[in-house]
């Protein structure tokens, strides 16, 4: 959903209108971007959407781990292996 100009609110205005803004977020589905000194500062989002965003973030982490495991298995299948000395050296090397 696109952000409308009415969804961008200076934080100084939001203090007085918090209940109204929260109702619009929950009932209308319009997330609000609160600005401070003209720049994006924080956002008001429905708590259920926030839970969903966190679940997506967790899922993304799981997918990255699964891909890393698949990459590792492909390395083993292709014979790209380190012996113990090379592994110790790689782990000790500064990054």
Please give the number of β-strands: 3
The shape is elongated
The largest pleated sheet is described as: 3 strands, mixed
Structural class: alpha+beta
The helicity comes to 55-70%
Topology:
Blueprint: E1 8-10, H1 11-28, E2 32-36, E3 39-44, H2 47-77, H3 84-92
Parallel strand pairs: 1-2
Antiparallel strand pairs: 2-3
Q: How does this model look, in words?
A:
The protein has 95 residues and is α+β, with helices and mostly antiparallel strands. The chain folds into two domains: 5-45, YefM-like domain (YefM-like fold, 3-Layer(aba) Sandwich), CATH 3.40.1620.10; 49-92. It has helices spanning 11-28, 47-77, 84-92, and strands at 8-10, 32-36, 39-44. The longest helix is centred in the middle third of the chain and has 31 residues, at 47-77.
Q: Briefly, what is this?
A:
The chain is 61% helix and 15% strand. The chain is α+β, with helices and mostly antiparallel strands.
Entry keywords:
single chain, 95 residues, alpha+beta, YefM-like fold, 2 domains, three-stranded mixed β-sheet, 61% helix, elongated
């Amino acid at each position: 959903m696109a952000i409308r100009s009415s969804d961008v609110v200076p934080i100084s205005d939001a203090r007085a209108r918090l209940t109204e803004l929260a109702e619009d977020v929950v009932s209308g589905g319009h997330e609000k971007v609160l600005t401070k000194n003209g720049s994006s500062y924080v956002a008001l989002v429905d708590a259920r959407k926030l839970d969903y965003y966190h679940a997506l973030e967790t899922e993304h982490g799981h997918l990255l781990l699964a891909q890393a495991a698949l990459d590792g298995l492909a390395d083993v299948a292709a014979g790209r292996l380190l012996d113990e000395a090379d592994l110790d050296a790689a782990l000790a090397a500064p990054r």
